[in-house]
Amino acid sequence: MLTIGILAHSSEGASLCFRTICHAGSELLGEHMHPPIVLSAIPMGLSMPGWRANDLAQVEPQLLEGAHRLARAGADFFVCPDNTAHLALERCIDRLPLPGLHIAEVIGSEIRRRGFSRVGLLGTRWTMAGEVYRRALAAAAVERLVPEPDEQEVLHGLIFAELCNGRFGPAVTAPFLRAIERLRARGAEAVILGCTEIPIIVDDANSALPTLDTTRLLARYAARLAVSGAELPANGWVGVDLPGSI
């Protein structure tokens, strides 16, 4: 089996990713079994000045250091359970010492499998306005809908002030559910939960649209990849081509 490296950025998303890999491993391998996992968690606070300044060059060093720690610990490939961090990872992927699974490519594969042609996207301001999902969904010939700018700011603020700090009450959940309802009214067929903490408060049970849970889908695909024993490139992005559902 391959060893999975979790390149953490936010603690809540990384924790959910870890638990999901373990649960998916048990489904694949039997009770109490899962692929070997190592985790590196450089504090996200060290990257926040770069995010606030829209300067990805300030974010890259933390991700590079985290990836090098994973490689030294024996990881064969990494996953980063943070959608926004992929804006910086795309810039430095060729300088990382091990290959990685791209979260948006995993989600694009699931969207194609399920046959959606128009999806909503929730996440941080940088994820909703950025190129990571714009490119991935365009490659899948899928239309991308995002909330209006004012609503984006509300969700962005809640992610950093509440979700990333482990606060998940009804007052935090309600604006995300309202945003999904508005996306449905605009014709979205499903919604990407494009911040790895959103799946802690939103799922198919309370969402007006079918959800695409980026955290759990990435984790489950990572478990399948690790068990497959597939040959991986030395670095760069790993192709998302395992058969079957995630």
Work out the helix count. Answer: 10
Helix/strand-derived category reads: alpha/beta
**Major β-sheet profile:** 4 strands, parallel
Percent of sequence in beta strands: 5-15%
Share of helical residues: 40-55%
Number of strands: 8
Give helix and strand order, one letter per element, not per position. Answer: EHEHHEHEHEHHEHHEEH
How many domains, in number, for the residues?
Answer: 2
Structural commentary:
- This protein is of the alpha/beta class and 246 residues long.
- It folds into two domains: 4-102 and 216-228, Rossmann fold; 104-214, 3-Layer(aba) Sandwich (Rossmann fold), CATH 3.40.50.
- The chain is built from ten helices and eight strands.
- The chain has helices spanning 11-29, 48-52, 60-72, 86-92, 103-114, 125-129, 131-139, 149-161, 170-185, 214-228; strands at residues 4-8, 37-41, 77-79, 100-101, 118-122, 143-145, 190-193, 211-213.
- The strands form two sheets. A four-stranded parallel β-sheet has the order 2-1-3-4, with helices on both faces.
- The protein is globular, with a radius of gyration of 17 Å.
- The two termini are 18 Å apart.
